[in-house]
Specification:
The protein is mainly β. It has one helix at residues 2-8; strands spanning 9-14, 26-31, 34-41, 55-60, 68-73, 87-90, 97-100, 106-109, 121-126, 129-134, 137-142, 145-150, 154-158, 161-166, 169-173. The longest helix has 7 residues, at 2-8.
């Protein structure tokens, strides 16, 4: 009985690029010189196409060698140097990632390309600073200053001074303050 149970759970290596075009994605895994197709399992909300030579924990469903599911991972290219309570999610081959630090910081890293955010509104706020982006307006605020861009003009505000830039030119509205005697 114990030997049968041990044969149901084993370590494997992926030997072929995973198929991602089927209802149940599969990958070829090799374990003890036996190559079989295995359904790929990831936790809810996470998904990846692991590269060849990734490691897997393979389970024989109902004890059947031809009915397998595998949890695929890649220790070779895993993110290293995490502190206690830190989480890093990303593409291990490119190194692009989002890292959640144990002090509350979040770092988005992308050295090879661009970052694309797609939403009707994007709002980033911190204390007195904020950035709001949407399809027709861009607003950047910091302390007493702000920049607003929309389809017709750009408005720069610094304290009580207002600069409006349109296709017709620049309008400056700077209050004149009398010097105190």
């Amino acid at each position: 009985m114990f030997n049968k149970l041990c044969q149901m759970i084993k370590r494997s290596i992926t030997t072929q690029t995973q198929s991602d075009n089927t209802f149940n994605p599969t990958v070829k895994v090799s374990s003890f010189s036996n190559v079989t197709d295995s359904e790929v399992i990831y936790p809810y909300g996470y998904y990846a196409v692991a590269p060849v030579n990734s490691q897997a924990i393979t389970l024989n469903i109902l004890g059947q060698e031809n009915n397998q599911s595998s949890f695929v991972y890649n220790n070779t290219n895993r993110f290293k140097g995490l502190g206690v309570g830190e989480v890093q999610v990303g593409g291990q081959k490119t190194g692009n990632s989002i890292k959640f630090f144990n002090n509350g910081d979040i770092n988005i890293k992308n050295d090879q390309g661009f970052i694309s955010l797609s939403a009707s509104n994007i709002n980033i706020e911190h204390d007195k600073s904020s950035i709001l982006l949407n399809d027709s307006n861009i607003k950047i605020k910091h302390g007493v200053g702000s920049i607003s861009l929309n389809t017709t003009n750009m408005v720069l505000k610094f304290g009580t001074a207002v600069f409006t830039i349109t296709e017709l030119g620049i309008n400056c509205n700077v209050p004149i303050v009398s010097p105190t005697p």
